[in-house]
Amino acid sequence: MGQATAAGDGAADLPATGAADEPDGLPVRIVWSPELLGYDFGHGHPMTSERLELTIRLAEDLGLLDHPDLELVGAGPASDELLATVHEAGYVAAVHAAAEHGTRDPARGLGTEDDPVFGDMHEAAARVVQGTLEAALAVWQGRAVHAVNVTGGLHHAMPGAASGFCVYNDAGVAIRRLLAEGAQRVAYVDVDAHHGDGVQAVFWDDPRVLTVSLHETGHMLFPGTGHARETGGVGAPGGAVNVALPSGTDDAGWLRAFDAVVPAVLRAFEPEVLITQHGCDAHPQDPLANLRVSVDAQRSAAQRLHELAHELAGGRWVALGGGGYAVLDVVPRVWAHLIGIATHRPVDPATPVPERWRSMVRDRYGRPGAVSMSDGPAVRFRPWSAGYDPSDDVDRAVRATRAAVFPLLGLDPEHD
After folding, report:
1. Which of 87, 158, 326, 407 has minimal Cβ neighbours within 10 Å of its Cβ?
2. pTM of the prediction?
3. Is 43 a catalytic site residue?
C-alpha cells in the first residue's frame, strides 16, 4: 500500500498508554471461571473454547493475573428478563428449546452451520452476557477502573436470531443496562475483522450510543454490512460509524484508518463509558478473514483505546474478546496483551512466550506455538494528517467514512 512506509517522513506510532491518572484503590476486573468454557459449538467448529483457556493460561504464565489489585470474577447465567432487554422473548424461548430438547430453528439461526445446537447453549451464552453486564456495572458504578471479558464480544447476535457464532449479544445487553442506570453517552468500538452488525442494529436509532466498527469490507466478508453509508437511523444520525477496509489491508493501512477515524469521532461524542470489542481475526493467519494485521498492531490499537478511555470517559473502559480463529499462535497473544494493558502491566512485545505455556501447547497439540509476544518490527504508519492518496484503496475507504459521517457529528471531513 502507498502508506506502508517504514520510519520515513511522516511515519508515526500510535501513542503508548499511560497509567498515571488511574484512580487510587480501584481494582481491574477480569471475567473468568472454567464454567465460561461451556460456550463451545463442538469439535471442528472455529469458535472453540480452547481459545479462551489458552489465553487465560498464557496470561497466568506471564504473571498478569497474580496481583492484589485485580479481581478475577466468574458469572452465573443472565436471567431471561435481562436477556429480553435486547432479545425477543420468542427467540429466548427458542434458545431454551434448542438447549433442552435439541430443537433446531433455522429461521432464528439455531441449528445452522454457523450456530449448531448444543446442550448448554442457553446457559453458556447467558453466562457470557452476565459476565459482560457485571463488568460494565462495576466500571460504571466506580467499583473497578477497567474490566475485561475475553469470552464476550458476541457482536453478531440479533434481537431475534443467532448469527455468526453469536447466540446472545452481551455488549448490547450491557449497554442497554448502562442506559437504564443513567448513562447518557456510551461508545462502542469494534476492531474485529467482521462488522459489528448486531450491536449496530440494537442501537441504530438511539442517539445515546455511538457504534464504531473497523472491519473488512462487507463486499468480501460476512455479514455483508458495515458500509460507510450506514451512519445511523433517523433518530440518531451519526450514531453509526463504519470503516470498511479492502481485503489485504496490512498494519500500516489498518492503523492509518484507525487513527483517521476513531479518535475524532470519540472526541466528538464525548462518551461517559467506552466498551471495546477486540476480535483478533484481522491477523494474516486467521482462516476466516482476509486482513493482514499483526499482533503488534492490534496491541497498539488496544493501547490507544485505553488512552482514549482515560482522556474522554474518566477511565471507564470495558474490553471484550470476539472473533479470532488462529487458536494457538494469535488469539492467546493478542488477548494476553489486552489483559496486560487493562491491568496496567503491559507486556513488552519482545517478551518471549513463557516456556511453561509452550510446553503445555506442545504436549496438547504437537507443536509449541509462537516464540515471542511480537510478530516482528515496530508498527509504523503514515497519519491521515500527512495527506490523502486518492490512488490508495485504504485511503479511499477512509475518505468515504469521513465524508459520510463526520458532518453528522459536527466534524470537518477534510481537516478534523
Report:
1. 407
2. 0.94
3. no
